[in-house]
């Protein structure tokens, strides 16, 4: 028994070490990858109940020559810990503004919005609103087209500052969406004060909406909340026709998921 415990302990230490080494390796590869222009912006459409495309969500990928196409969950948390998220976020913002300016020149795409995911660290940058205005002016982005997606975690610190920042952005024609809505626990009390225009129902609710009456009740409540506050309600992670139909019945305004399209390079929009 003793030797078994000893072996387990040794195994535990070795995997921790590997982990730390792996993380250091990944951080340096990511740093180099950013310099070499290995980041890519993908996009996934958001459609209305008639499947008309209203806009797109920008989703970052890292195309590493050694590791292939890496999804954000595998490097964004690391980028947040090391502060590299600031640089990555600036790159995403720049790409998004440039893309919106391109879309604005074509009658077939000029109605499209583009949503960009923000990390809490980016919001805490002193000059964030100025940075956004600068990029919008630089490319000539029309008002009402750029949207930021924030998770409820950004509401945990300095709510007053966040409210002022979102109001400032709103005045510059930038919209805000609350991402993964329903998974946090503080949403309801903050909603009244927050200058947001959209709620994005988390995929975990969409997954079970067809056969779980309690899930349907939660979604109904979010839709009613949205109506009361004048917010656009979007469901993400829609994979099946029955999910789409049920969500539409429940009053959801817009839909996003593999049923309509997987994320693809934004240049293919
Ligand atoms: P998110 O903002 O909740 O994005 C939705 C995720 O669900 C995306 O994963 C998307 O590809 C995936 N998805 C969309 N439709 C479906 C579906 O029908 N079924 C399933 N199973 N999944 C679906 P992705 O692209 O891997 O992004 C993961 C997370 O990484 C995002 O979650 C977001 O939090 C973060 N992220 C992505 N791009 C950025 C970025 O530019 N900046 C920051 N800070 N975070 C980003
Ligand atoms: Ca999102
Ligand atoms: Ca989400
Ligand atoms: Ca998510």
From TrEMBL:
Source organism, top-level taxon: Bacteria
Coiled coil: none
Domain named EAL: residues: 23-269
Protein name: EAL domain-containing protein
Organism listed in the record: Leucobacter rhizosphaerae
């Amino acid at each position: 028994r003793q030797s078994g415990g000893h072996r387990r302990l040794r195994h535990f230490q070795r995997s921790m070490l590997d982990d730390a080494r792996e993380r250091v390796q990944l951080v340096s590869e990511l740093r180099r990858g950013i310099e070499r222009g290995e980041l890519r912006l993908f996009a996934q459409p958001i459609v209305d109940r008639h499947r008309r495309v209203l806009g797109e969500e920008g989703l970052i990928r890292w195309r590493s020559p050694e590791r292939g196409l890496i999804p954000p969950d595998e490097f964004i948390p690391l980028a947040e810990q090391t502060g590299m998220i600031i640089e990555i976020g600036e790159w995403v913002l720049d790409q998004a503004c440039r893309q919106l300016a391109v879309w604005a020149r074509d009658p077939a795409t000029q109605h499209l919005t583009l949503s960009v995911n923000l990390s809490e660290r980016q919001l805490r940058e002193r000059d964030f609103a100025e940075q956004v205005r600068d990029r919008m002016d630089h490319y000539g982005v029309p008002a009402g087209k750029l949207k930021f997606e924030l998770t409820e975690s950004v509401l945990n610190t300095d709510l007053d500052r966040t409210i002022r920042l979102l109001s400032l952005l709103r005045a510059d024609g930038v919209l805000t969406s609350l991402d993964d809505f329903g998974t946090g626990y503080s949403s309801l009390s903050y909603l009244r004060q927050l200058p947001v225009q959209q709620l994005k129902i988390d995929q975990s609710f969409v997954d079970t909406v067809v056969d779980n009456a309690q899930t349907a009740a939660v979604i109904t409540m979010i839709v009613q909340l949205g109506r009361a506050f004048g917010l656009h309600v979007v469901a993400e992670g829609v994979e099946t026709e029955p999910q789409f139909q049920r969500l539409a019945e429940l009053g959801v305004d817009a839909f996003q998921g593999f049923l309509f399209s997987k994320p693809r390079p934004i240049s293919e929009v």
